[in-house]
Fold this sequence. Notes:
The structure is a homodimer of 533-residue chains.
Chain A: H1 2-5, H2 9-34, H3 36-57, H4 59-65, H5 70-79, H6 84-112, H7 119-139, H8 148-166, H9 171-195, H10 201-229, H11 238-241, H12 249-259, H13 261-271, H14 287-311, H15 319-324, H16 326-349, E1 351-352, H17 355-376, H18 389-395, H19 402-414, H20 419-422, H21 431-444, H22 460-504, E2 507-508, H23 517-528
Helix pairs in contact in A: 3-5, 3-9, 5-9, 6-8, 6-9, 6-13, 7-8, 8-9, 10-12, 10-13, 10-14, 10-16, 12-14, 13-14, 14-22, 16-17, 16-22, 16-23, 17-22
Amino acid sequence: MDDLGASTPFLNKYAQKVSLCRRILRSIWHFLSKEPAKSIHALKMAIAFTLAFLLALIELPYSVFGDHIIWAIMTVIVVFEFTIGATFSKGVNRGIGTLLAGLLAVVIGELASLGKGIVHPIMVGACAFITGAMVTYGKLWPTMKPYEYGFRIFLITFSYIMVAEYRQSDPIRMAVNRFFIILLGAVIGISVNVFVLPLWAGDELHEIISKNFNSLADSLEVCVNEYLRGAVLERVPTKILMGLAADDPVYEGYRSTLISAAKEESLATFASWEPPHGRFWKFRYPWQNYVKVGAILRHCTYSIVALHACLRSAIQAPVQVRSLFRDEIFAVSQACALAFRKLGGQVSLMQKSDGMAIMSGVHRAVEQLQESLYLRSYLLVRPETGILEQKLTEELPLSVIPEIKKSEVDMEVAGRFNPTALGIAVKPESPLELNRRQYKRLYSWPHREVDDYKFTKDSVLQQKVRVLESASAMSLGTFATLLVEVAMRLDYLVDAVDELGELAGFREVVKEQSNGPEQQGEENGTNHSMFVL
Amino acid sequence: MDDLGASTPFLNKYAQKVSLCRRILRSIWHFLSKEPAKSIHALKMAIAFTLAFLLALIELPYSVFGDHIIWAIMTVIVVFEFTIGATFSKGVNRGIGTLLAGLLAVVIGELASLGKGIVHPIMVGACAFITGAMVTYGKLWPTMKPYEYGFRIFLITFSYIMVAEYRQSDPIRMAVNRFFIILLGAVIGISVNVFVLPLWAGDELHEIISKNFNSLADSLEVCVNEYLRGAVLERVPTKILMGLAADDPVYEGYRSTLISAAKEESLATFASWEPPHGRFWKFRYPWQNYVKVGAILRHCTYSIVALHACLRSAIQAPVQVRSLFRDEIFAVSQACALAFRKLGGQVSLMQKSDGMAIMSGVHRAVEQLQESLYLRSYLLVRPETGILEQKLTEELPLSVIPEIKKSEVDMEVAGRFNPTALGIAVKPESPLELNRRQYKRLYSWPHREVDDYKFTKDSVLQQKVRVLESASAMSLGTFATLLVEVAMRLDYLVDAVDELGELAGFREVVKEQSNGPEQQGEENGTNHSMFVL
């Protein structure tokens, strides 16, 4: 090595070049390995494409099929999709579309050729018109949507063979030829896709659904912990309103579940085209049940979205009020998150387990929360009823949230804004703009005539503050109720996962945890309690 | 007419046949006119297809382009999409893909042909491999998604010309030929699509978004009216959980908003390809703002979903409690529905109007609801606190909801179920199955050890009932808070519609309604008050 270091300038240059090459190669490798599935797909496509190309380059197939061999390459290009299911679906669509269209075109072409002179092209044209209209209408039929590609190929082959027939080539030979060339292309495409590093739609669906359980659990935990910590957040930012990626852990947790409906649906459709493979070694694997589980997860998500809205609501329970029910709310969120994770684990590991055991911890926690709300709900309503005066002034100096108090003050200073000048372009990045919008919003809310009030002993401002105080304490009740709603929807989820496990033949596991769900819950609680403090 | 009726059997038969034909034609017409857009599309496709076919049937173009004329027909078939924007997008993709691939293939082919003997096919194969891998990888790039079709066409043309080049045809002539034929097909497809009964993606997007405002308003109104009427509904049925169409007016109202995200996105993409037309006579029309409005509508929908969950929740406020706040809740729902409709009208008629004026009715109603909650929220908490005893026993015989009472009784009779036998297949249609599942759910909820209770003066059952009573009254507070949340999200919607109006240049309208939103609200209230009674 020392020898090399002390060698001639030529060798030095050479070493530099090598290291440059290595750096370039490494950065390419880094780039490609970021999303390995995409690289794998590109590589597979290149292999299939080249194999089809060889058909045209090598003498034997070319001498048999002639220039038509290009159809095999086109078939590979068109049929080769990301997942195996999609490739199968397209390949079969293409095959059947070609076959049927070939048969129809040969028959119609023969009939049309009975007309002599000008009648022949008119009949061909009329047949084209009718076929075109009917096939296009059929393609738009709702139940025909998965076969849309087949309809398109039908028209292409139909016109191809009709033209050949009209132009006095040998239409039958051409139809057979075209069918076999397309078959050849489809076989190349499908074989490469299946036998070289296969990417199954079923696997992807399984992963997505399993992951969504965990991210919902994360989302729920973070949301409840932030709430109990008394985080004061601005209202829902525009990015979240628009469903775009945003830097909010709660939102990031549930976002993928919220937007993945179409993807899950199409993956399930493709997966149903796939033969039994790997973990899913079962004929007629119940892929549609994954979609069902996904849909019910989405339904749980709607409740979490509502919880998130509570967390970011302008009218908030003061942190002292929240702390009254802290343990119970925390226990419910922990139990629900644990249930989500356990169910996700069941799906992910393909294990069956006792739904009742999973839910018993949740039920216990929910009941304790309800009981606690029952016993102490009087703390949530208006402070000056008399009996609570003492307790509240001691324990909780119920204050309006800072935002609102600020708005009252600012309003006096800022005076009236010109509303038409404010409702224009939204640039969530500009703090100035945000400020203006905030003003507008805060200004627009407490807008009321004095006469509306039925009590007049206090100043209007004081009354206003008291109404908002009451609403703010009430919002804790809402938060708790929504949390209970999440817990209740878990029941449906347990059913759906059970059903999936039954139909998919998940493995039975020895019920070791059926006795101690509470212990596990508590254990989990202590593990995560640092979040609350 | 009488003559015909009394004529010979032959004429009779003839008349029968005519009436049969007429019936058939009428039913076909009925069938086609059900979804006119689909029929129009099919007709247009047939026209374009036939026109392209004529190129192959008539001597002149055929003598120029020969058998390659089939590419024009294929281009029409492939490019012809439902909306004009989609057709443009595909046409341009196809054109540019073909052009670039043609250039690249000619250059690479010439370079590869420098290698003699076995080197030539090897170089061609290597080029195919590299091109295939790179193009496929590029296609998967997230920002390249709209151009996916262009990449595919690139590969097809590339292979087509490379093979031609290898097989000693005239590649440049072929590339030019192919380009012009494809251009011809694209021109036919696009012209027919634009000039014969055009279907614009922009129009469809505009309609969808406008309609969603009204259906959300309907959904909200029905939901609140049902709630105030004290409707006792079963829990959310599986169909709704799965996002399928279901016979529930509340759900049907918000469903389309909930599931239309992907559709709105793709329509906006296609619309941005469309030239200015009709009402949208503006260069760079802000289609993405429609998507934004749609997204914020979806965010409002999540709150309505939560309201709907309240309506169908197992734990419900008794109708007497609901009636305490009936007027205020009804006023908020009416004001919100009116605001939704007004905003929808603005979008639909492309008018600008004052957002503050629209919202002032909503703000007033929300404040009255909050005030009322403040003044009477003590009615929502546990009845035996003492001060309320008298009032409650007079006004509200707070009873547990029938479902739960029934479950307590049934439980005694039914004994313990075997839980593993219950968690299996869900068939929402079977009433027996539903019953069993209902049992399971009702059984599974009130499951708790007696020791958990901190008070022991009543029997366990009585205590249990009281806890549920408290939770049930509390659920009214949740309903009200969620309703307020809907109202608050309307602010964002007003902003988004304002922004859209500003950028799209909606017409300014004379502000006639800016003084009397309350009057309109009240008027509306009386119109719809029959729903409540």
